[in-house]
Design a protein that fits this description.
Helices cover 44% and strands 15% of the residues. By secondary structure, the chain is of the alpha/beta class. The strands form 5 sheets. The protein has a 7-stranded parallel sheet with strand order 3-4-2-5-6-1-7, sandwiched between helices. A 6-stranded parallel sheet has the order 8-13-12-9-11-10. The protein is elongated, with a radius of gyration of 28 Å.
């Protein structure tokens, strides 16, 4: 489909009006025009590529409401706040809400002038949503993190498989937009198949980031290397680690050596996490040492380095986290610190990540008992869940338990959410006339009700987030007094008051089964394990390999071909040979041809290659140093067997 078929000007006017930009990025415009023309579209955009613009702009320009499906509740809530601040009416529905809140939210989306309804995937199959969906005037369905629908992907979620059922309840003309930052060719095909695309339609930018220098540093003393490196280089960056404890320890190490650093992980209270992220984003903190919980919604273009202290589980994870560097297009570094223990830890992780099936069933039974879910019930029920309390109560090993629960999620029995910070919410359940009569008859509540109405809008039509501390400051009352007022008004059926809470959630997507009926498919278990082992092996090979351009390896994994970057550690070492890429590759090809299926000594290679002796010798030495050539006892050279990443 060509861009010319769509009048882009009204869409550009939306962009300028709400976001202040006068033009789209190239792929943004292609995707938006594809959607505006009514085509199902898969958009592959790198981290920081402006994915949300691709559905927000066309949805605003069209009549009706856009349904946005995303598993990231914190990001969902953040986008809703941003849109509402732009006076674009938006709503979110997720598992942290009461049935009454969901009921009101859906009614508002049906009868009000809302433009966006964000929903978490596990809510799609619920009866309340399925019953209301046909009444929504949908103009677009946007599926974020679309790789989650594929069992070939690294973050498969069974709830995503329900998304295609939306098609049965909405007009056929409503287009689907699937978005992801990284996907292999197999995952790309799977996304379009499982979302029942009417035609194959993939729009993508190159994953190549020419300004990023990918480096692998083999270091046993990572702390010393990190301190020295951060003293030598300038700018702001992220150090990724795999444990909460380590994030704090390394941040303290950097601080003790005069480097402005802080730590971040999912176990910190939400308000502290927000404060730390703002401090880093604004430049007040130079280095943030973080688990992979850090990254969602980062809007900082001038990140100069991302350093991985620990090797990630997959190239997808590594590539996505590395992609947070150098979004301003200026030179930047992605560094992987690698040691012998990293390799053994990754290989050993297979055992920890895949507990025996009987252990998985033990955890399932313990979970059901912990949440008091009897057999035959629990489907679609949502429960507050504390992992720490759960493993303590049943004396379970933390890592094995987490992985058992993850497998139960992958099998479709339960769903988990990240910790949700749900603020307190208030909704007036009487009309304005009845409220006025109540205020006249109950003078003691009049001042507090006026304070509520002055401080927040929309409380007559929906649940509105409030802050008891803010109300206390404004009224010169204590927080406890504010709480008591709200509870009393709720008991008198004037308002509905839902106190805030922070918790993770467990959703039972199926009724509780008996241990005997709980089926963990041996084939599926083995298949998932094999895929995990494959992803680990590719990650290890990337770290181990020292003869092929890092960027080429990464792009090849995602099915993209490219020339070597010239700036990674492998390319830099090859550049030191004082040979151009063209010369090196020509001599390399000659040596390959001469050694095809046989052995030869260096003299023969030099004489038959037809290139200057000193240049051929340089290439031979490089190939020997990097184990591409092997020499036997008679000093005869032969080509080593190809490995996973040989090119």
């Amino acid at each position: 489909m060509s861009v010319e078929k769509i009048n882009i000007e009204p869409l550009r006017q939306v962009l300028t009006k709400y976001w202040g930009f006068t033009s789209f990025r190239p792929l943004q415009e292609e995707i938006i025009c594809s959607i505006a023309a009514g085509h199902d579209t898969l958009g592959l955009m790198p981290t920081g590529g402006g994915k949300s613009i691709t559905f927000q702009v066309p949805a605003i320009a069209m009549d009706g409401i856009c349904l946005v499906i995303t598993p990231l509740i914190a990001l969902m809530k953040d986008q809703v706040v941003r849109l509402n601040n732009l006076e674009i009416r938006s709503m979110a529905i997720h598992s942290g809400m009461t049935r009454e809140e969901i009921d009101i939210a859906l009614d508002n989306c049906i009868y009000g002038d809302y433009k966006f309804l964000y929903i978490s995937p596990e809510r799609i199959a619920t009866k309340i949503f399925q019953a209301r969906l046909p009444r929504l005037d949908l103009n677009l369905v946007a599926v974020d993190e679309a790789h989650c629908i594929s069992q070939w992907g690294y973050d498969f979620r069974p709830s995503y498989l329900k998304i295609a059922s939306v098609r049965e309840l909405i007009p056929a003309k409503v287009p689907f937009l699937a978005l992801t930052a990284s996907a292999t060719p197999a995952v790309i095909e799977d996304i379009m198949t499982r979302l029942e695309f009417r035609e194959k339609n993939v729009l993508r930018t190159s994953f190549e980031r020419k300004n990023i220098s990918y480096l692998v540093r083999r270091e046993e003393d990572k702390g010393t290397y990190l301190v020295k490196t951060l003293h030598k280089i300038r700018g702001s960056g992220i150090v990724y680690v795999r444990s909460r404890r380590k994030s704090k320890e390394i941040a303290e190490l950097l601080s003790a050596n005069g480097i402005n650093a802080d730590f971040y992980h999912a176990g910190l209270p939400v308000e502290i996490r927000d404060r730390k992220q703002v401090s880093w984003t604004s430049g007040e903190t130079r280095v943030i040492v973080a688990t992979n919980a850090f990254g969602m919604g980062i809007d900082k273009a001038e990140v100069r380095f991302v350093i991985h202290w620990d090797i990630p589980d997959s190239i997808e994870e590594y590539f996505q986290e590395s992609g947070r560097v150098g979004r301003d297009g200026k030179p930047a570094f992605s560094v992987l610190l690698y040691s012998a223990s990293d390799k053994s830890r990754l290989e050993d992780s297979v055992r920890r990540k895949f507990p025996p099936v009987e252990k998985i069933k033990d955890v399932y039974e313990a979970l059901c008992n912990y949440l008091n879910v009897p057999e035959g019930s629990g489907k679609d029920n949502v429960f507050d869940f504390s992992m720490a309390d759960f493993v303590s109560k049943y004396r379970l090993p933390v890592i094995e338990t987490f992985n058992a629960l993850s497998f139960l999620q992958r099998e479709g029995y339960v769903e988990f959410t990240e910790e949700i910070n749900n603020p307190s919410r208030v909704h007036f359940i009487v009309g304005r006339d009845d409220l006025y009569k109540f205020q006249v008859a109950n003078e003691a509540f009049d001042g507090f009700i006026k304070l509520l109405l002055r401080s927040y809008t929309g409380m007559f039509s929906e649940f509105v987030p409030i802050n008891e501390d803010t109300l206390a400051r404004k009224s010169a009352m204590t927080r406890d007094s504010v709480y008591r007022f709200l509870v009393k008004l709720s008991s008198m059926n004037i308002v509905k008051y839902i106190p805030g809470k922070k918790t993770s959630l467990v959703i039972f997507t199926e009724e509780r089964l008996s241990r005997k009926a709980l089926f963990i498919s041996p084939e599926n278990y083995l298949q998932v394990k094999e895929k995990h082992i494959f992803r680990i092996s590719r990650m290890i090979d990337y770290a181990d390999y020292n003869t092929r351009c890092r960027s080429v390896i990464l792009l090849d994994y995602f099915g993209e071909k490219a020339d070597r970057c010239g700036i990674c550690d492998v390319c830099r070492e090859r550049n030191e040979l004082d040979l151009s890429k063209y010369e090196f590759d020509l001599i390399l090809d000659e040596i390959k041809d001469i050694l095809a299926g046989r052995k030869a000594d260096a003299t023969e290679l030099v004489s038959k290659s037809g290139y200057p002796e000193e240049k051929v010798i340089k290439v031979i030495r490089w190939l020997l140093d990097h184990n591409k050539l092997v020499m036997d006892d008679q000093h005869l050279l032969s080509w080593k067997e190809k490995d996973l990443f040989s090119g």
